[in-house]
Design brief:
It comes from Pseudorhizobium halotolerans. This protein is of the alpha+beta class and about 450 residues long. The protein is built from 14 helices and 15 strands. The strands form two sheets. Strands 7, 8, 9, 10, 11, 12, 13, 14 and 15 form a nine-stranded mixed β-sheet that branches. Strands 1, 2, 3, 4, 5 and 6 form a six-stranded mixed β-sheet that branches.
Length: about 450
């Protein structure tokens, strides 16, 4: 990433009193920002070199519970430290927080100072390095959808997340008048992200009441993942500051559409000038490299689904007729397919993965997609014919795993992922998935009580 806000800029802003706080953040397994708020003067005097955090941060669930069964850390091992190494190329001002700058950190072993293999940023960097060794650079873009509510987070919690009031009463897909009513929040999000060095393209209403989408310019894979986690955190903070709440839950309500994070992917030469997916003389403009890459995505579609849909709730989104896919097939400009060919016959040709929900961790999702695509290229996999028509009604075609339980088994048994990520990394995330399932399996839901309280 080429820094637009440098360490020298930070030092000047600290000296002039414009910045007094620096957020030093790692990205946890759930894709959230975790870290410390530094007094800015202390940060520029030395903390920019490194700081520390408890190593349980990469071994907890959504509730920050310490979970047994992890090889990397445990009560038996004493939950020691990680070293957080600020990547100063990610440094930026945060306009929506007064006097604040933010930097993302790589997570290093406290003793060896090697990157922790199961840290999300390290997992993606490993796949990026594999491509670099092949003379290839991956560019990606994520489209984030979310729901906007008129309550605050505190009010939503106090109500038990019942009777929530959406910002809109009707489907607002591309709707200008309705989104005008939401501009206090959405303009603040667009301008805030732009001010934080994230080039915003647009926001729009999405395909359900109260649903929004924010789109930013594509970038190399690591930069895009960095942008993604800052976007999510920023959207929540900005909404909170306006007395509103946002959810990135993949399926917040049975009657509402799900929220996705479609991932657009293309490969280019190492200098970023030559599109390796484009062949002007080929059908649809698809190069052999692109065909092999997509074939890899499809061959390993089931194995990588966990990294696109990491929670029980994620699988509630995969419903026919909702614009969320149910089949892991590819098709030309077809929104019923799990993988959609976009920009055909142009230099902007790319493949859009429509499987991922807004709850995914972008580093893990991108790494899994790249690993599958690289395997397709290395083994010169042959791409199956494009699917045509309504994929929801397609028979005898590859399906997206129906449950987290199914996706976990496929991930754990994947020779491709074990080769690309390493056994310890796959085992680490297998344990995370198992815990999510175990927690759900022992919970009593409102649906069960309402259905069976009297009639069972």
């Amino acid at each position: 990433m080429t820094a637009t806000y440098t360490f020298d800029d930070l030092k000047r802003d600290v000296a002039d009193g414009r910045i007094d706080t620096v957020l030093a953040c790692l990205v946890d397994m759930q894709g959230r920002l975790m870290g410390k708020r530094f007094q800015a003067q202390f940060f520029v005097e030395g903390a920019y070199e490194e700081t520390h955090s408890c190593n349980y941060l990469l071994a907890t669930d959504m509730e920050m519970e310490t979970i047994s069964g992890y090889k990397a850390t445990s009560w038996e091992k004493g939950y020691g430290d990680y070293t957080m190494k600020p990547d100063l190329s990610t440094l930026r001002r945060i306009p929506w927080l007064e006097g604040t700058a933010l930097v993302l950190c790589d997570v290093l072993d406290h003793h060896t100072h090697e990157e922790v293999p199961h840290s999300p940023r390290a997992i993606l960097k490993k796949q990026v390095a594999r491509l670099e060794a092949m003379g290839i650079k991956a560019f990606m873009a994520t489209e984030l959808e979310f729901f906007l509510f008129d309550q605050t987070y505190e009010q939503a919690h106090a109500s038990g997340y019942r009777n929530l009031k959406l910002a809109s009463a009707y489907n607002e897909d591309y709707h200008i008048f309705q989104t005008s009513k939401e501009e206090e929040v959405m303009r603040a999000i667009r301008n805030g992200l732009q001010g934080a060095g994230i080039p915003v393209e647009n926001s729009k209403g999405e395909a359900s009441a109260g649903q929004e989408e924010i789109n930013v310019r594509y970038a190399d894979a690591l930069t895009m993942a960095d942008r993604h986690v800052i976007i999510k955190n920023g959207c929540k903070e900005i909404a909170w500051s306006k007395g509103k709440a946002i959810t990135f839950l993949a399926k917040w309500n049975y009657n509402a559409a799900g929220s996705s994070s479609h991932i657009h992917q293309s490969l280019w030469s190492a200098d970023g000038k030559t599109p390796l997916f484009f062949d002007k003389d080929a059908e649809h403009g698809m190069s052999e490299t692109m065909k092999h890459y997509i074939a890899g995505l499809l061959a390993h579609a089931g194995e990588i689904t966990y990294f696109l849909a990491p929670y029980i709730n994620s699988y509630k989104r995969f419903m026919a007729g909702t614009f969320a896919p149910t089949k892991a097939i590819w098709s030309k400009d077809n929104r019923t397919a799990g993988y959609r060919l976009c920009g055909d016959s142009t230099k902007g040709i790319r493949i859009e993965c429509r499987v991922g929900g807004s709850d995914l961790n972008p580093y893990l999702a991108m790494a899994a997609l790249l690993a599958a695509g690289i395997d397709g290229i290395e083994n010169r996999m042959e791409l199956e014919p494009a699917f045509e028509g309504d994929a929801y009604g397609g028979k005898d075609i590859r399906e997206i795993p129906h449950t987290l339980r199914d996706a976990t088994a496929l991930m754990s048994g994947s020779a491709m992922l074990r080769s690309a990520f390493g056994d310890d990394v796959v085992d680490h995330y297998t344990r995370a998935a198992q815990w999510e399932q175990e927690e759900y399996d022992r919970r009593i839901t409102d649906w069960e009580v309402a259905r069976g309280f009297e009639r069972a």
